[in-house]
Design brief:
alpha/beta; single chain; seven-stranded mixed sheet
Length: 542
């Protein structure tokens, strides 16, 4: 009996090996497809196509027909040089006003490239997933096609057995189609030979001579010092060299140093999170407000929360400059990517300097957005909605009248309070303006126990606010996490002149402790960062 099963086992083994071989062939074909087609990644709000270029000793990035940056690369794969080519679908009109570079907007755009480590991580991630999708897709496609062909052959044999039992008709058909089959086999064989010759490396390396890249001497001292610049817009790039030096190179080094100093300070073990009293179940989360697209502080904030083991970050809005430009998606994308790598959930609410586009970008980037519905994470429940006022570039704040703004904020507070009143558990209200937070505490049917807000760029609280039906809640207003001065100054000028580059004013990040059961505030730890990179830590603020 055992010997009778051997042929069956051998047949199964051959079929498994055949399936594996077909999957490998499909994977190789998919890999080839992945190399010759571009991956897509968002860079500074623009769709960017990225290719691997086997045999190239340089990396190239640019806008087709306008400007190309070329840098020497020593990257290799299986002993062969591999370059990267990136083409940005960029609307240069964003940076131009009246035929000249807009000195408000250019620093903000350049700052979008001030975290090269994150940019490289984004490109690498998308390239890897692009290749993985093609490899898996190729394997699946070959298996499906082969399976369909196998099924057709079985069906055909069954059909012929019924309708052509002696095989005469089929033999006649095969004889008639013999010339086509002969040419098909020859062409397929020729293609296989060509592919083998082209793709299989020789036993001896024939590496191309490295291309000589000549950096523009005018860009010496900037992150583009060793980059060759060509194209119609190369003079404009040279004209922006001071921006590149300050808002890309110096900014990256500045925030790296600030992060390293913070981590060194935390290593002393002098910072502890609130633990509450007996019976309390305390959850800690990070809190920021008014980042104003200072993406340099993102690495500092995320490093702080990661070191303390905190997995939630709440923002009270004004994360963008003005919500007016496509490149402002980087204001939250950079934070979203770093938070994802650190296993941190971002909970965001829109401020007056954000826009519906900002909120949409946040959702698309995997952040949780407060748009009246309750958001729950780590056993905490948050409620809020975007600021009804707007501060688009060149317009100032709208509504333009104080009465109109007051009416809009009152309606916002009433909407959040209605959601709170239907809740069955304590809530934390997050709104951009402090007046909204206070009103929600008073009108939220006692369900809102803590209100967090920003807008003023001035820290205030925590203050006790009486709740409907008795008891007290707490309100806390955060200072600017982007190092912005007072809100009045931001309304008078574009935020990029205030928060891009190294810090111009103190920046604040907070860790808030809340009892999950009652929603009561347990404690707030303040981390203050000064322009000269000093760090002060205050535990139990207020």
């Amino acid at each position: 009996m055992a010997g009778a099963r051997v042929p069956q086992v051998g047949r199964v083994t051959r079929r498994v090996l055949a399936v594996l071989l077909l999957a490998v062939v499909g994977a190789v074909l998919g890999l080839i497809g992945g190399v010759v087609t571009p991956a897509h990644v968002e860079i500074a709000g623009s769709d960017t196509r990225v290719w691997l270029e086997p045999g190239e000793t340089v990396d190239r990035i640019g806008v087709t027909g306008l400007v190309t940056l070329t840098r020497a690369s020593s990257r290799t794969l299986a002993g062969e040089p591999v370059g990267v080519r990136a083409v940005i679908d960029f609307d240069a009109a964003q940076l131009v006003s009246n035929g000249r570079l807009n000195t408000d907007v250019v620093p903000a755009y350049v700052a979008a490239y001030s975290d090269p480590e994150q940019l490289v991580s984004d490109v690498r991630h998308e390239l890897i997933w692009h290749l993985v999708r093609w490899v898996v897709g190729g394997a699946v496609a070959v298996l499906l096609v082969t399976g369909a062909w196998w099924w057709y052959r079985r069906w055909r044999r069954s059909f012929d057995h019924t309708h052509d039992p002696d095989g005469a008709a089929r033999a006649t058909s095969r004889a008639y189609r013999r010339p086509e089959r002969t040419w098909t086999v020859r062409i397929a064989g020729a293609l296989v030979v060509v592919l083998v010759v082209a793709l299989v490396p020789s036993g001896r390396a024939h590496l191309p001579a490295p291309r000589r890249v000549v950096g523009n001497p005018v860009l010496a001292g900037t992150p583009l010092a060793d980059v060759e610049v060509s194209g119609l817009l190369s003079p404009a790039l040279v004209a922006a060299r001071n921006y590149i030096r300050t808002y890309a190179g110096q900014t990256d080094a500045y925030y790296d140093t600030l992060r390293d100093r913070l981590l060194a300070r935390l290593d002393t073990g002098t910072v502890t999170l609130p633990v509450g009293t007996a019976g309390q179940d305390v959850a800690s989360f990070g809190f920021v407000a008014d980042r104003h697209c200072n993406i340099g502080m993102d690495r500092v904030t995320v490093a702080l929360l990661r070191r303390l083991g905190v997995h939630t970050l709440v923002s009270a809005g004004d994360d963008a400059f003005s919500g007016s430009f496509a490149f402002e998606s980087v204001c939250t994308r950079n934070l979203a990517q770093q938070s994802r790598r650190a296993d941190i959930t971002d909970v965001m609410v829109g401020g007056n300097h954000d826009s519906p586009r900002t909120v949409r970008d946040e959702r698309d980037q995997g952040m949780k957005t407060l748009e009246k519905d309750v958001v729950e994470t780590d056993g905490l429940r948050f409620v809020g909605s975007p600021d009804p006022r707007t501060s688009r570039y060149g317009e100032g704040i709208r509504p333009a009248t104080a009465a109109g703004r007051t009416r809009a904020l009152d309606q916002q507070a009433q909407g959040i309070a209605r959601v709170a009143c239907s809740a069955t558990a304590p809530l934390i209200a997050v709104a951009h303006d402090p007046t909204v937070g206070e009103q929600v505490l008073r009108d939220g049917c006692g369900k809102v126990t803590l209100a967090l807000d920003g807008h003023t760029h001035q820290q205030a609280g925590p203050e006790s606010v009486p709740l409907t039906g008795g008891g007290e809640g707490s309100q806390f207003t955060g200072g600017s996490a982007g190092g912005a001065p007072g809100e009045a100054a931001v309304d008078r000028t574009f935020a990029s002149s205030l928060t891009v580059g190294p810090l111009h004013h103190d920046a604040f990040v907070y860790v808030v402790g809340v009892d999950r059961k009652s929603g009561a505030l347990v404690g707030i730890t303040e981390f203050r960062f000064t322009p000269d990179q000093q760090i002060s830590i205050v535990q139990d603020v207020g």
